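Hello again, I could really use a second opinion on something today. I've been staring at a protein lately and its backbone has me curious. You're getting the sequence in one-letter code plus the fold written as tokens. I'd be grateful if you could look everything over and explain what you see. No rush at all, and the record is pasted right below:
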Amino acid sequence: MTADETDNKIITFGCRLNAFESEAIKKAVAESGEKNLIVFNSCAVTSQAEKDLRSSIRKARKENPHAKIVVTGCAAQIDPQKYAKMTEIDLVLGNVEKSSSKSYKSDFKITKNSAKNVNENLEILHKDAIFDNHQKSKNNFITDEEHSKIKVNDIMSVRDTAPQLVSYFENQTRAFLEIQNGCNHRCTFCIIPYGRGNSRSVPLGEIVKQSQKMVEAGHKEIVLTGVDISDYGKDLPIPITLSQMIRRLLKAVPELVRLRLSSVDVAEIDEEFFEILASETRLMPYLHLSVQAGDDKILKQMKRRHNRQNILDFCEKARKIRPEMTFGADIIAGFPTENDAMFQNSLSLISEADLIFTHIFPYSSREGTPASKMPQLEQKIIKERAKILREAGSAQLQKYLQKQIGHEFEVLLEKNNLGKTRNFLDVEIISDEKNKLQKGNIYLLKINKIKNNLLIANQ
């Protein structure tokens, strides 16, 4: 990674929401008129994520001695003084500030009380037990010199969520639309609410307006994304549910061909959602579920609001409505106190719920979370369990793909002869007339074989 005197680079870590927001950062940096910036949009979901971030920052400084290095995102929001103390970094921005062009301007003045405000915010975090006792040392609080790097607001004071106005993603047929930010829940392994704040929803009118722009820009598919989209709408002046918003959005934007959801929590899905699933074919038959574990005791330790049976019942009900439904899931391997029997419950959930797209995360203790104070498992056990879960997920996917041979699918072509079915399966199109295949077009294709994790179809 290098940058010359005119180039700006945005380096993204973490989730899809960060990827979406990096597009807004790219726009803000361009509007600022600043040059030779390297912006790190960070993730703080695990300690390893931050370790990788710091390593990348040091490497960037070594390769680009004259660049202005900016760090933003959740890691910067949660612990700004840590990054202000890094000599490689010139500017630390919070999650609220990162999409504003003025934040990047070299002549932007930081308020006189910034250091005082940041230190007061740290005191709030300490009271909330986000940091361990050794982090409460005054030695970790920022100096006046270090505070000059920081533009970080108190995320818990933020009430409004302005949509990031990105109407086109280069070289993509799929666009991501942020409908919500923050989280009102406090899972014991997660520190993200302290990086994102409490749940804040984008008004329906803005979502409709942005969707129309995306459709006009050529997107056939929009993915609704956020930190906890299942919690959408409860904070709006006139409350609305996620289901009600989906119904009204699809009615308001009839030109939208495909609508997807990034991730849902089954504990918050209502009956109206299933009614829409049954009646609206433009809502795609694929859902990524925030599962985390398949054992009830572990789920309780995590402070999740669903149990194992809830996941199984949800998948069964959705498949009865749309038999082509597929599911993905996040699962954490080796959560504190997890014994062999508990692990087996998570393992068997993959086959019982037929979860074909599994995102397996080896548990990584995040300093300051309640889970970090629980009895920890050995790293060797965590890695082995993660490996077993990944293998089970891969086997489940292969088993499902084999069943699709001979079936026809509508495939939205994305790039390089690759596309996706409505239920999120990857398809490679074999064609003698490659130049005639148009990105963004939908083709009805019959599957004749599989290769690795790809369905293969001839045009």
Notes: The first helix runs from residue 16 to 32. The chain has a mean pLDDT of 85.
